[in-house]
Amino acid sequence: MTSDSTATLGAWLASCGSAGLRSPDMGHCIKIAKLTKCYGATVAVGGLSLDIEAGEVFGLLGPNGAGKSTTLSILSGLVPLTSGSISVFGRDLRKDFMAIASRMGVLMERPSFYDYLSARRNLLLLARLARREVTVDRILDLVGLLDVRHKKVGTFSLGMRQRLGLAQALLTEPELLILDEPANGLDAEATQEVLRLLRCLADEAKVTIIMSSHMMHEVEQLCDRVAVLNQGRLVTCDRTDTLLSYDLKRVEVLVDAPEGAAGRLRDMAWVESVEAKPGRLEVRLHDENVHQLTAFLVSSGFKVSGVIPRRRTLQDYFLKALNS
Amino acid sequence: MIVRVWIAYKLEVLKAIRLKFTYLGPALVVLTVAAMPLLQRFERDGVSDYAFIAYTTPVALNLVGLILLLAYCASLVSNELASGTIRTLLVRPLRRYEFLAAKLLLGMTYAVVLTASAAAATWAIAFALGDLAGVAYGGEVVFTASRMMLTYLAGAAAALAPQFAAVAFAVMLSSLTRNTGAAVGGAMSLWVVSDTLKYPLRAAPYLFSTYLETPWQVFQRQVDALEGQWLPDIGYCLLTSTVSFVIFAAIAMYALSRRNLNT
Q1: Residue A186 DSSP code
Q2: Average pLDDT for residues A262-277, to the nearest whole number?
Q3: Residues 6+ apart with CB under 8 A from A213
Q4: Which one of A125, A181, A184 would you mutate to disrupt binding with B, by most B Cβ within 10 Å of its Cβ?
Q5: Which chain B residues have a beta carbon less than 8 Å from that of A128?
Q6: Alpha helices, H only, B130-209
């Protein structure tokens, strides 16, 4: 992305607002009810129900074959559903797909373009198909491809294609973005830029985003809510900030004599496990009773210089959800 | 719907213009026509120029042109399926049948371009090497130059009907597979097999491929200073071509509507 991309983003967001597309209170953007997709005897998605609020960034997590891409493909109109219903912007996806499609942008995994055309020409063609008057160069600038806009897409790297994929998804100034692995192929810096851009779109332009990803840190950074799918079924769904809260049952204690303190703690019924490390203890408690722990150590004559509760990660949540 | 198909068609044309393969067909057709004076004796005798036209255009179109038309159209949908670009298109406000209609229109446009290239090259050579003063018999002009031109144009227009059916045939095969090689090979081989078997199976009168030469017959008779009859053969040509076009297009649309675009 260029250094001017913030200004470009500002102009882009302003145009979204001026188009009168978004209202501050739009309620549900997507309502999925008992969505099922079968390929012969194989159930790719089974009875999935989700509600996604307008302006929300929603993440779909799951191992390979969990049904994330199928769900996004159904939402994008690429795959017909077997049963159930999907409502987007209050309209039935099957009946009003054309009206819905004009208000959404889609980035599927491994986006494809006409290799013999330039990046700019590809976007111009797609913009014409969407029948939207857009400044293609501004969007190319937004995703950091302005300098290579006249190069044929066939010469592009995976990361450049991914950026172009994002650009084509933004062409119609969408109210809903469907992103399948949006940072696929991007280096760390570009990933951060894309995540920042997406967060900005959600916050400033109230764009609703539903995305899938294998990269937990991407989802942690970006998503307001996540759902874990496994074998086509919803395992769990919760707010990201709830999931990423501190785990007061797992604490790290900075203490002067870790070995001795560990020996004392092992006898306590309220301690599940304890492990001594150089200069610290890793303690698992049965209850979230850190006060009891610190009080016990201090009263036992140990010098406690700090107690650090462990922060939960999405990886923990993901693995726990799958194991359960 | 019509507006969306029109926009999609214009995009197809813009894409085709930037694809080098598009120019191969017209170039080879013109090359074939340009090579024809080596096979067909040419003298300024008031006959051989029209005889050249009557021989050259059908040969250039029904041999070289048809192969190129089948190859071009058989790659139209399968290429998009193989590369995944169809997914980039169909997540926009464009229905699958509208996408297919745009592809069919592009194929038909290509047939028109091939026919126009063959016609232009044929008449240019005939004009350069002959006199094109009409068909004379016994010193008397039987068919004037303008009459010959009109008959040729009518024949060329009618010859588009079986070519359009061939376009639908190739596009249908293109919709059935994401492998462009299989689509092109399948179109060619099925064409040859059906052409070989249609007479022993007595199916020839019902197949549009039987009538590829029919539109040129009136012109060819006029070259021999004989009055030609359009009906009933041209009627069979148009009828079988139209029915075939509808059937092939319907199968293509059904196949595309059922296709899983997730992978």
Answers
A1: -
A2: 88
A3: A59, A60, A61, A181, A182, A183, A219
A4: A125
A5: 7, 10-11
A6: 145-176, 180-197
User: Is residue B17 within 8 angstroms of chain A, CB to CB?
Assistant: no
Phi, psi torsion values for B15, nearest 5 degrees: -65, -45
Chains A and B: how many Cβ contacts under 8 Å?
73
pLDDT digit string (tens) for A23-70? Answer: 444 567 889 999 999 988 888 898 999 999 888 999 998 888 888 989
Instruction: Give residue A25's pLDDT.
Output: 46
Beta-carbon contacts of residue A27 (< 8 Å; ≥ 6 apart): A53, A54, A90
Distance, in angstroms, between B36 CA and closest chain A CA? Answer: 34
Which of A112, A116, A121 shows the shortest C-beta gap to B88?
A: A112
The answer to whether residue B94 neighbours chain A at the CB level (below 8 Å) is yes
Which string of DSSP letters, residue by residue, matches B206-221? G-GGGGSSGGGHHHHH
Do residue B11 and residue A106 have CB atoms under 8 angstroms apart?
A: no
Say how many Å lie between the first and final Cα of chain B, rounded: 27
CA distance A157 to A185: 9
How many CB atoms neighbour CB A280 within 10 A?
A: 17
Distance from CA of A217 to the nearest CA of B (A): 26
Amino acid found at B263 = T
Q: Which amino acid is it at B123?
A: W
Token readout for A158 is 């995976």
Question: What pTM, to 2 d.p., does this model score?
Answer: 0.83
* Long-range CB contact pairs, A31-35, < 8 A, 24+: A31/A85, A31/A86, A31/A87, A32/A71, A32/A84, A32/A85, A32/A86, A33/A84, A33/A85, A33/A86, A33/A87, A34/A83, A34/A84, A34/A85, A35/A71, A35/A74, A35/A81, A35/A83, A35/A84, A35/A85, A35/A86
Looking at residue A133, its amino acid is E
Q: Output the average pLDDT for chain A.
A: 84
Q: What pLDDT score was predicted for residue A193?
A: 82
Task: Please tell me which residue of chain B has the smallest CA distance to A100.
Answer: B93
What end-to-end distance do the CA atoms of chain A give, in Å? Answer: 41
Note whether A77 contacts B262, CB cutoff 8 Å. no
Q: What are phi and psi of A120, to 5 degrees?
A: -65, -45
Beta strands in chain B (DSSP E): 135-137, 140-143
pLDDT in tens, A87-142: 998 899 888 888 898 889 999 888 899 999 999 999 999 888 877 777 888 889 88
What's the rounded Cα separation, in Å, for the pair A264 and A249?
18
Q: Are the C-beta atoms of B121 and B34 separated by less than 8 Å? A: yes
Residue A105 CA to residue A134 CA, distance in Å, equals 14
Asked if B90 and A78 come within 8 Å (Cβ–Cβ), the reply is: yes
CB of B188 within 8 Å of a chain A CB? The answer is: no
